[in-house]
Amino acid sequence: MIDERRRGFLKGVLGVGVAGFALGSGIVPFRVEAAMAPSAADWPKKAFRTPGVDETISELYGMDAEESDKISVDLPTIAQNGAVVPVTVETTLPNVTGIALLVAENPNALAASFKIPEGTLPFVSNRLKMAETTDVVAVVISDGKAYKATKNVKVTVGGCGG
């Protein structure tokens, strides 16, 4: 019985010592920060408050978007719970610098806006909140031009398909 307590105590002391060494030497950081924390100046406040898809794209990027078949939007055709609609966007367009997700019938169309760093795969995944059946628009900025792809999602009440 005493040997078990002693063994447990020594394991605990050894564990704390190793953790202390790892933290103190910098092997394990004390804190983790976001890679690219946005500043208040980077926040597209007005775009998040603009109703309508075309108006939001214009406010966010200062240009109109043209339809593209090089954007893949993966969404359920029927969403049984409009509070959490999964969406994935990827593209084969070159030099992508931004991807945005818009929900046409939401009071504010812009649901999410992503800056894509150079050398990063142009892929985003998110969950959207949708109150009713509507179009979801993915906007991709590639080589300084805006492209979009649209997919309609039917939101059912209570998940019964009706």
From TrEMBL:
Residues 59-160 form the Ig-like SoxY domain. Keywords: Membrane, Signal, Transmembrane, Transmembrane helix. The keyword Membrane applies. The chain crosses the membrane at residues 12-30. It holds the Pfam family SoxY. It comes from the Bacteria. The keyword Coiled coil does not apply. Gene3D superfamilies: SoxY domain (2.60.40.2470). InterPro entries: SoxY, SoxY_sf, Sulphur_oxidation_SoxY, TAT_signal, TAT_signal_bac_arc. NCBIfam families: SoxY_true_GGCGG, TAT_signal_seq. This is Thiosulfate-binding protein SoxY.
